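Task 17 of the worksheet. Students: predict the tertiary structure of the chain below and write it out as C-alpha cells. Keep your answer in the requested format; marks are given for formatting as well as content.
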Amino acid sequence: MRIDVVSIFPEYLRVLNLSLLGKAQEAGLIEIHVHDLRDYTFDRHKTVDDTPYGGGAGMVMKPEPWALALKEVLDASPVKEPTLIVPTPSGEVFSQPAAHKLAQVEHLVFACGRYEGIDERMFHWAREHFEVRLLSLGDYVLNGGEVAALAMIESVGRLVPGVVGNPDSLVEESHSEDGLLEYPVYTKPSSWRGYDVPEVLLSGDHAKIAAWRREQQEERTRRRRPDLWTKRQDMA
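Model answer:
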C-alpha cells in the first residue's frame, strides 16, 4: 500500500515512522510519502491561504497549491484513480468498517486542511482525478487535518496483512465484525493489590472462557455503547 500525505506541517507526520507503521515501512508493506503544501506556492511568503469571498472570520486555503501538490502525487501513483481522503468535521464519520475497506485500496492520499478549510473548487477538480472521501473522526473540531489523518492511517495501516504480528487480535478487538466492544483482558500476576483475575480465565476450559468473554462483550457494549447495542439488535 502507498500512502501520501499533504500538509503545511510535514514534521507533524514524523510519528508515522515509529512503532508498527515504521516497521511496516522498513519491511516494504507500506510506503508513506509526506509532502509540504508550501512547496507548491510561488510567492516569497509561500502563501497557501487568503480571505474568504463573502466575508467571514478566518482564512481559506487556496486551490492552486493543492492542485499542484495532488497532481504530482497523481503522477507518481501506482493506480489510475487513487483515493483522496480529506479529514473534515463536515465529512461522514470514520469507522472500523470504513478502515477495513480502505485497507484494501492500493493508494491512499490524505489532504490535511487548515484554517476555515479548502476552497470548494479544489474538490470539484479532485473528483476528476481521484475517488474523494470526506471523513470525520467525530462531532468535534480540530485545528487541522493532521491529527485525524494520523488516526485514520494507523487504523487502516494496521489492517494491512503482515503489519500486526498476530492477525487473530484484529478479529477479537472492539468494533470487529460482530459489532461488540472488546472483552476485558488480564495478565500476570493473578492477584494484584487485592484484585484477582476472574477464576474462569485460570480454569483452562476454553469453552467456558469463550462463553465468559462473549458475555463480557455483550454486557460492556450494552452499558458503554447502548447505541451500538441497539443497532446490533435491529440488525439481528
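Marker's comment: The first helix runs from residue 19 to 26. Strands lie at 2-7, 31-36, 49-50, 60-61, 83-93, 107-111, 131-136, 191-192, 195-196.
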